[in-house]
Write a sequence for this structure.
């Protein structure tokens, strides 16, 4: 890599164009509120604001080229607020020889910063990309930048600070002296992102009709707002977001993503983890129902919250290829129909799949935990798996319904094979694309009444590891064999009685120890090793609490507190707060020696 760092240069000298206009030197970028009252609609919040009107005054602080990609660290003017200018630092990359390029705005998540790596990845795929440093953290990879090369919000709170939260005029960094959506930091971040679009469309090597935006978490919230309010966005992908405020309040009507959903007209992809605490799957369904755009897709990874695996990473880059570059065919969303006419406790799900790309397999997931809306409940939802099989011109799967007291939520993931030529040099696009269905949500009263003949028997087996599909109910981002599941909360499993044991059957070639977790409690399991299957019995007192201070276990009389908790299997576990006599973190288990264990069964012995 040959990096040639340059000192500050003017865009008039081929890199930075500094536009000047006397009318903007002292004036405010936003008008005062009409009659000094709170904006009551989204139209009143934004008024006639024009993100093109003010000069950007761009300065490039570093420029270098690597792998045919030009990379820059730059800063542009967001605007003037409360008498002081606000400046946005950013990373910007583009294919050096590219012309009429599609371009993306990348919006980082909370606690993060602008990323040269993410921009460069997009540029390797043929895009120009700007990543704005709205969080105002310093660039960690560049220690020799001048002080003015960083984001400076001036007199207002656009960064991720306590002062930026909410619409109330709680401090002197708020724009307005009355409750106002312009007081929320997200308004300023969205405005800064609109200015980034202006930067992109002014570049001579960019096609201004091919602009897109994507972001994760807080960046996903900004992405959705940007796609709604600025029609220059021709495709968007908000990930891990947004949380909704579904209520009749000033905040909901003018600042929540709820207010922005009815303005979304561009093609939009929702990549998210199914148990995401920040991007509830049912909130996304609400947005889809209330937005004008009918060009949308979902990519939903089961079991995870606010993270995921590379298996699901192809959706976002291929979404932009389909809608900005027009070089990829993105399959239609699968359609679902649930039929209770046969066995009412075993309804059949019929799935219509777009087969214009080769289908690898189709997975069905469903839950009875749909009404759980608290943080802990959402991230711990158990999604049961059912394998779909091809029958004629559609796929079918059987569901098992235990009772009608709770709602039934169902969705499908269609895994498509991708041709080798689509694989890129980075991690996102590999051998498959996952396209998800919408969520089929039935309330308990919509389910058929079950007679005695329809009651399904329950089991004491939490997981049979001899089931070839057992990994579909478990999840992990670890490279080794650590894994997690919420299957202990399945309605198919009997509630453990007082005095019950948690039994693990497994075989390991060599003596070892591993860790079994249940909720916030963890137990070390010792295995003797050898060719025979070993049976290990565990009681509640064998488990230590993750957040317990001191060295002793928390006394648990029975399983009632934890039997529905998240299961963890792994070679070791480090407790959050538990310290030994020398003040070191307590670790149970250790490095696994020899061949991986062969798990057989995990069950309650009542």
């Amino acid at each position: 890599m040959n990096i040639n760092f340059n000192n500050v240069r003017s865009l008039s000298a081929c890199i930075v164009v500094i536009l000047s206009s006397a009318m903007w030197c002292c004036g405010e970028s936003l008008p005062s509120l009409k009659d000094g009252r709170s904006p009551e609609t989204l139209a009143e919040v934004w008024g006639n604001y024009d993100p093109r009107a003010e000069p950007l005054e761009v300065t490039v602080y570093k420029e270098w080229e690597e792998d045919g990609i030009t990379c820059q660290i730059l800063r542009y003017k967001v605007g003037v607020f409360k008498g002081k200018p606000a400046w946005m630092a950013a990373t910007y990359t583009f294919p050096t020889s590219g012309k009429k390029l599609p371009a993306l705005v990348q919006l980082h998540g909370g606690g993060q910063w602008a990323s040269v790596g993410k921009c460069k990845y997009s540029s390797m795929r043929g895009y120009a990309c700007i990543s704005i440093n709205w969080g105002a953290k310093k660039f960690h990879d560049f220690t020799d930048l001048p002080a003015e090369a960083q984001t400076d919000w001036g007199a207002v709170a656009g960064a991720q600070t306590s002062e930026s939260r909410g619409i109330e005029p709680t401090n002197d960094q708020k724009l307005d002296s009355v409750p106002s959506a312009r007081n929320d930091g997200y308004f300023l971040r969205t405005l800064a992102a609109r200015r980034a679009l202006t930067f992109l469309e002014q570049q001579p090597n960019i096609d201004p009709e091919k602009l897109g935006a994507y972001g994760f978490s807080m960046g996903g919230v900004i992405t959705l707002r940007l796609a709604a309010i600025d029609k220059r966005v021709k495709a968007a992908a908000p990930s891990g977001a947004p949380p909704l405020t579904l209520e009749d309040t000033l905040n909901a009507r003018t600042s929540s993503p709820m207010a922005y959903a009815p303005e979304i007209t561009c093609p939009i992809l929702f990549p998210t983890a199914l148990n995401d605490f920040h991007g509830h799957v049912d909130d996304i369904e609400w947005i889809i129902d209330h937005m004008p755009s009918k060009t949308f897709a979902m990519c939903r990874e089961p079991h995870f919250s606010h993270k995921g695996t590379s298996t699901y990473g192809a959706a976002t880059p291929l979404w932009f290829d389909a809608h900005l570059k027009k070089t990829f065919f993105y399959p239609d969303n699968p359609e679902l129909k649930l039929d209770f006419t046969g066995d009412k406790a075993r309804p059949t799900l019929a799935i219509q799949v777009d087969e214009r790309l080769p289908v690898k397999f189709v997975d069905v997931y469903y839950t009875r935990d749909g009404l759980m809306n608290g943080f802990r409940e959402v991230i711990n939802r158990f999604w049961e798996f059912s394998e779909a099989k091809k029958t004629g011109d559609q796929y079918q799967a059987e569901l098992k319904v235990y009772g009608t007291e709770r709602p039934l939520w169902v969705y499908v993931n269609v895994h498509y094979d991708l041709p080798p030529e689509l694989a890129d040099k980075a991690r996102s696009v590999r051998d498959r694309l996952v396209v998800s269905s919408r969520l089929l949500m039935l309330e308990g009263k919509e389910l058929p009444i079950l007679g005695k003949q329809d009651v399904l028997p329950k089991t004491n087996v939490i997981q049979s590891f001899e089931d070839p599909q057992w990994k579909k109910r478990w999840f992990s981002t670890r490279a080794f064999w650590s894994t997690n599941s919420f299957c202990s909360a399945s309605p198919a499993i009997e509630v453990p009685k007082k005095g019950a044991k948690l039994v693990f059957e497994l075989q390991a070639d060599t003596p070892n120890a591993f860790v079994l977790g249940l909720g916030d409690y963890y137990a070390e399991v010792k295995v003797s090793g050898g060719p025979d299957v070993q049976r290990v019995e565990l009681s509640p007192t064998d488990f230590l609490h993750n957040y317990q201070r001191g060295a002793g276990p928390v006394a648990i009389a029975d399983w009632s507190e934890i039997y529905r908790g998240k299961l963890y299997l792994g070679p070791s576990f480090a407790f959050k707060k538990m310290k030994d006599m020398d003040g070191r973190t307590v670790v149970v288990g250790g490095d696994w020696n020899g061949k991986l264990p062969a798990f057989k069964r995990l069950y309650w012995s009542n």
